[in-house]
User: Which sequence fits this backbone?
């Protein structure tokens, strides 16, 4: 059993402490917006926020996540108001297949929380998610659009 | 060399391949576009025809048979229908008919296959007719109600007007009556010059749910009582499952069942996938790896190299003049050998499918590029007839050709068959996905160019050796044993024709099929053929001290469309002016999927092996551009996919198995490595070419040619990581 705080709600989940947070979120809490891509913290599809920091949830165990405030893509908006990254992603038509974009959006949201006006170098350093469709051009443009708003 | 060809593997591939290609034929129904006249959508709204449903609130539902996998075809096809329909774009939604519904209606929606960059180009005519036919019927319904001639009525944005009487109505109000009318025998389609919805860079219709976690991919499917399965297939292709020790894992948490899947795989079914995967990893498995376990990258390379010898048999794909005589009598000869490796598709979402099998029904939910192929696989694996099967498409997390195959669907059905009444979601781990791809085929190519005394290219001998995709996946498409697709980009004519005229030309293919199963990988055979031809063209140009662009131009006089895109990138990148200090350029062109494309790159190189790609220009002439914003994204994305393969890709074989296991050993470009791609679209009209794939062909040769310009070193082998060349 583990108690996890996800998107402001407490979940009491029947999981072993060494279960990766990714699978507890997807299969036990039932929030499937966070995606499995590699399981070894390489691709970033599973990125969530833990106490505001972007983390690859496949590489975090449930026991490490207990007591932390976890935010997933489903909890990024404030009620009906989209987070500025989500809004920019829609306005700039960023996603192609979209599978990596939950993680991409969470990574970008964490970057912008830390650096509201990131340079290209800041983006290059902070955004290391894999996108096989190749949306990088639109990702970069959308970040700059948000930063200059 | 028997160990390189696994007869068992090929036989199975033949059965599945045959079923997958002609789903209609396999099911015994191949009559397109028939079916009952009046059908209702699920909510009771009348169908005006198979492509168009109009709801009373004027919402227009456009049916899409081809698969969306990120490439934007769903939006593009809807634009084409809406253009002819003259409806209000802001009220357009889309839905997928199922293959089962289509078969029950005599394939009312035609082909579902979404590969070969065919999504739009191969259905544009009949979906536009679908929209135009519906428009005529809706107007006629209004005219009938008003008792005026239809010819006096006009329509704009779904509002029908009879000017003389001042009457107006909307599509939603007349749809019920329109659905009862007889469709017109013929409709006239708009001239693309008059398009107002198609041809525009409209936003995609499917974006919002990709930004909030609501989009359902195959991996997200949930059904009541569903269990989850993890699977391991014999890591040596063609090998078999010998035994496993089920007792070792039966007590593990959540484990429900261990299932032998066919002759080659074992799956663990559990309450959660994590439990299934954990138990599977703990399951002792013994494989019967067979003869193929002796195969390695080295043995494959040796076998392919033998095929480069002219004394070995080869299929001739393109020929004029007498190459051998011309080379023998030439003043100067240039020769080079290139190779291109296996590549995994590595879609972000690993393969998966959810199946529910009962005694009288089998249903599957999955992402796929070919709903009908999945349907055929469900029939075959379940043993049930067509009327008792169906499949429901969900969003695929990438396709790139991998999801045109149905191996994972067959597995899911076989597992579900062992648990009747319980839905089972089969998900491959990334490791399983890397081990069981349908890989970009492996090839080598020996090219010989010959010049006369005036440095004119008089002969070109292009000899491929290596794997045929069609041999494995569509043997019925071979032509007297020859794989015509092997010559993509260097063919005599057609949708992938060579752009150069050489007085003596011989393009041939020594087919050698190692045991690693090949597949259609974005760009398919264009990838290696464009590298071979375009890098060698560069070599030929430099060998006679000519500018690579000018050298190509001289050979392209008879191919003005090829030349036009090449000139377009040359102009955009500023080829006529020297590159800035420390920056080097490369250029390439090819034709594939009915489109003419060219690319140019500017790079810098530090320490001889660290490449920074600074600028990419890409041009395409696909005939028509349905959505320029999406075409731009496909071009940029194709470069990311193509350059990832060039720098980081490549799958190697050891002991018959693929060595790469995850993104740590099969890396992919990140945002810091990818410059902006500057697209130049020059649609010349009169033909319909594809978009998703063609430009990938010029990505690698443009960069490789720039690397030569920078270093004087010619790279003839992919990937670059094997030569210690990386991104700066």
Assistant:
């Amino acid at each position: 059993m583990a108690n996890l705080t996800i998107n402001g709600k407490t979940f009491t989940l029947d999981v072993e402490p060494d279960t990766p947070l990714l699978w507890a979120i997807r299969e036990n809490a039932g929030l499937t917006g966070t995606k499995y891509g590699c399981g070894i913290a390489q691709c970033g599809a599973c990125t969530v926020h833990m106490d505001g920091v972007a983390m690859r949830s496949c590489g975090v165990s449930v026991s490490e996540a207990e007591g932390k405030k976890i935010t997933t893509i489903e909890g990024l908006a404030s009620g009906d108001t989209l987070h500025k990254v989500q809004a920019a992603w829609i306005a700039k038509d960023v996603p192609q297949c979209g599978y990596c974009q939950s993680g991409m959006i969470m990574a970008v949201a964490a970057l912008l929380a830390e650096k509201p006006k990131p340079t290209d170098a800041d983006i290059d350093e902070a955004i290391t998610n894999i996108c096989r469709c190749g949306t990088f051009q639109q990702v970069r443009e959308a970040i700059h659009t948000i930063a200059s708003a | 060399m028997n160990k390189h060809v696994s007869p068992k593997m090929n036989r199975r591939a033949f059965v599945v391949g045959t079923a997958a290609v002609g789903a209609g034929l396999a099911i015994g129904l191949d009559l397109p576009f028939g079916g009952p006249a009046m059908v209702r959508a699920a909510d009771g709204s009348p169908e005006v025809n198979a492509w168009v449903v109009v709801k009373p609130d004027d919402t227009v539902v456009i049916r899409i048979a081809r698969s969306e996998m990120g490439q934007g075809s769903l939006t593009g096809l809807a634009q084409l229908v809406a253009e002819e329909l003259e409806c209000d774009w802001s009220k357009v939604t889309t839905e997928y008919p199922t293959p089962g519904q289509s078969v029950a209606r005599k394939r009312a929606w035609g082909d579902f296959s979404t590969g070969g960059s065919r999504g739009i180009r191969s259905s544009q005519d009949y979906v536009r007719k679908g929209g135009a036919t519906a428009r005529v019927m809706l107007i006629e319904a209004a005219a009938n109600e008003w008792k005026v001639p239809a010819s006096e009525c006009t329509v704009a944005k779904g509002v029908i007007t009879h000017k003389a009487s001042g009457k107006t109505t909307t599509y939603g109000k007349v749809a019920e009556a329109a659905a009862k009318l007889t469709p017109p025998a013929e409709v006239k389609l708009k001239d693309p010059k008059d398009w107002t919805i198609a041809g525009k860079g409209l936003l995609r219709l499917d974006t919002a749910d990709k930004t909030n976690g609501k989009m359902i991919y195959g991996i997200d499917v949930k059904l009541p009582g569903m269990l989850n399965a993890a699977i391991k297939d014999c890591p040596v292709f063609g090998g078999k499952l010998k035994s496993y020790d089920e007792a070792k894992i039966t007590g593990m948490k959540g484990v429900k069942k261990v299932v032998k899947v066919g002759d080659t795989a074992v799956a663990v079914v559990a309450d959660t996938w994590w439990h299934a995967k954990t138990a599977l990893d703990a399951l002792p498995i013994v494989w019967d790896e067979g003869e193929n376990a002796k195969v390695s990258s080295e043995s494959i390379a040796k076998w392919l190299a033998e095929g480069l010898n002219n004394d070995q048999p080869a299929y001739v794909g393109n020929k004029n003049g007498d190459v051998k005589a011309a080379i023998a009598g030439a003043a100067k000869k240039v020769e080079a050998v290139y190779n291109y490796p296996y590549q995994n598709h590595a879609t972000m979402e690993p393969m998966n499918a959810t199946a529910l099998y009962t005694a009288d029904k089998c249903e599957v939910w999955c992402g796929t590029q070919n709903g009908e192929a999945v349907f055929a696989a469900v029939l075959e694996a379940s043993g049930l007839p067509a009327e008792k099967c169906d499949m429901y498409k969900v969003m695929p997390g990438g396709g790139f050709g991998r999801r045109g195959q149905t191996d994972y669907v067959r597995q899911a059905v076989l597992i579900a068959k062992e648990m009747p009444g319980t839905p089972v979601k089969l998900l491959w781990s990334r490791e399983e996905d890397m081990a069981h791809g349908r890989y970009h085929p492996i090839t080598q190519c020996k090219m010989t160019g010959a010049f006369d005394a005036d440095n004119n290219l008089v002969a070109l001998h292009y000899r491929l050796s290596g794997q045929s995709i069609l041999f494995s996946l569509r043997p019925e498409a071979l032509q007297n044993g020859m794989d015509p697709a092997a010559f993509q980009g260097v063919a005599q004519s057609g949708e992938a024709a060579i752009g150069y005229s050489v007085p003596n030309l011989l393009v041939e293919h020594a087919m050698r099929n190692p045991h690693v199963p090949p597949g259609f990988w974005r760009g398919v055979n264009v990838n290696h053929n464009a590298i071979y031809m375009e890098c060698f063209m560069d070599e030929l140009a430099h060998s006679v001290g000519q500018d690579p662009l000018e050298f190509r131009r001289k050979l392209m006089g008879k191919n003005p469309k090829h030349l036009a895109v090449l000139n377009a990138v040359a102009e955009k990148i500023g080829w006529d002016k020297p590159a800035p200090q420390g920056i080097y350029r490369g250029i390439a062109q090819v034709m594939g999927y009915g489109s003419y494309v060219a690319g140019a790159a500017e790079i810098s190189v530090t320490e001889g092996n660290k490449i920074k790609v600074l600028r990419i220009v890409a041009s395409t002439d696909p005939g028509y551009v349905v959505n320029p914003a999406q075409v731009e994204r496909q071009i940029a994305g194709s470069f990311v996919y193509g350059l990832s393969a060039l720098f980081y890709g490549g799958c190697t074989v050891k002991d018959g198995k693929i060595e790469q296991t995850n993104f740590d050993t099969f890396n992919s470009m990140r945002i810091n490595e990818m410059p902006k791609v500057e697209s130049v679209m020059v649609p010349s009209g009169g033909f319909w070419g594809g978009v998703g794939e063609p430009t990938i062909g010029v990505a690698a040769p443009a960069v490789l040619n720039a690397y030569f310009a920078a270093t004087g070193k010619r790279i003839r082998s992919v990937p670059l990581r094997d030569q210690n060349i990386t991104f700066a």
Q: What stands out?
A: Residues 3 and 113 of chain A are 27 Å apart (CA to CA). The two ends of chain A are 44 Å apart (CA to CA). Chain A has six helices and five strands.
